[in-house]
Amino acid sequence: MSRFLSTEAACLAPYTPGEQPTDAQYIKLNTNESPFSPSPRVVKALSRAEVLKLNLYSDPTCGVLTDAIAARYGLRRENVLAANGSDEVLAFAFRAFCGQGRGVAYADITYGFYKAQSALFGLEATVVPLREDFTLRVEDYLNFPGTVVIANPNAPTGIALPRTDIQRLVESNPDRVVIVDEAYVDFGAESCVPMILRYENLLVTQTMSKSRSLAGGRVGFALGSPELISALNRVKYSFNPYNVNRLSLIAGAAAMEDEDYFRDSIAAIEKNRAWTTRELEALGFTVLPSSANFILAKSDRMSGETLYRTLKENGILVRWWADQPRIRDYIRVTIGSAEQMAALVDEIARLLDM
Ligand SMILES: *Cc1c(COP(=O)(O)O)cnc(C)c1O
């Protein structure tokens, strides 16, 4: 480690993103991106005229984008905060709602960024094991005094929690913030967005990275009571007032307005998910029930590590976690196009035959 590191930076636990190779041509099923390009409306909105305005700062209130988001969910501007991906939303939320005397709780198997951000902000983190079958027991969190973060559906399991469970958690202590990370909710889980008008302590985060094909545009947002949103703005204006760039504001608004394209993309992913699940089960895999655009699966004949490595050698990238004993036998496969899924299944069938 560098001698230039501050004590605080030496204590960080940086998140390791999935590989983004630039050399070989891989079938990329490792980072839960959409296999589809953004909506044609996005392409049209990103005009030369807009590029020529890049000499000007972006709108710090993210007006066009927050309005499009608010309209889509039947909310007001005061209920929305936009950011550079939901990772940035989560960072603002961790800084705003956790700190001295107010720790954070999350599951042992969940999105790795919660741990990374807890370390970044020096928070006391309570890690709560999921059940044996990887479902989350909401009872485990009811008495926790700090902030609770739940990914719903969870990642990388894909398992969804019923909205009524989250409602119990939110109601059990109105003075505690509950953050529900709905990065994958559009693929089949129950959203808590309709609850935010009733509960001032519920913050929902979403992203355009998965269901709206804008991972590279970095657009995420938080939905919540005006009280929570203004707390997030306090952090944002202490960090990066012009957080979302001009082109992403426009791209995000256009993506949010193309409901037909959104629905078609989701339908295709759900269809391909069902197909891939059936095919892998026929090859002897155990596949966790997924409400997301990925599946967590394990073979009865090949370790997760061997699957990951051999698939990679053969041009298919999936995700595997060496440092997570509970899911070491599993691989996580992003649901791509029908062609990509057929290629994956063919390759796995061939590997198991050898
Ligand atoms: C992908 C993901 C995010 C963040 O995505 P952004 O690209 O930063 O919007 C947040 N939470 C979970 C669980 C994710 O998988």
TrEMBL record:
Q: Which residues carry this modification: N6-(pyridoxal phosphate)lysine?
A: K210
The biological pathway it contributes to is:
Amino-acid biosynthesis; L-histidine biosynthesis; L-histidine from 5-phospho-alpha-D-ribose 1-diphosphate: step 7/9
Tell me which SUPFAM superfamilies the record gives.
Answer: PLP-dependent transferases (SSF53383)
Its required cofactor(s), as named, are: pyridoxal 5'-phosphate
MF GO annotations: histidinol-phosphate transaminase activity; pyridoxal phosphate binding
Q: Which InterPro entries match?
A: Aminotrans_II_pyridoxalP_BS, Aminotransferase_I/II_large, HisP_aminotrans, PyrdxlP-dep_Trfase, PyrdxlP-dep_Trfase_major, PyrdxlP-dep_Trfase_small
Task: Cite the record's note on assembly.
Answer: Homodimer.
What does it catalyze? L-histidinol phosphate + 2-oxoglutarate = 3-(imidazol-4-yl)-2-oxopropyl phosphate + L-glutamate
Q: Which Pfam families match?
A: Aminotran_1_2
Domain Aminotransferase class I/classII large: start-end pairs: 25-348
Family per record: Belongs to the class-II pyridoxal-phosphate-dependent aminotransferase family. Histidinol-phosphate aminotransferase subfamily.
Q: What is this protein called?
A: Histidinol-phosphate aminotransferase
Query: Is Transferase given among the entry's keywords?
Result: yes
NCBIfam families, alphabetized: hisC
GO BP annotations of the record are:
L-histidine biosynthetic process
